[in-house]
Amino acid sequence: MRVETIGNGEPEIAVVGGIHGDEPSGQRAVEGLIDDPPEVERPVKLIVANEAALEADERYLDEDLNRAFPGSHDADTHEGRLAARLTEELEDTLAFSLHSTQSYPKPFAITTEVDDLAREIVPALPVDALVTSGEFTDGRLLDVANVVEVEAGHQGSERAAENAALLVDAFLKTTGVLPGETERRTHLPVYRLSRSVPKAAATDYDLLAANFERVGTGEAFAAADDEEIVADEPFYPVLMSAEGYEGIYGYAAERVGSIES
Ligand SMILES: [Zn+2]
Question: What's the pTM?
Answer without folding.
Answer: 0.96
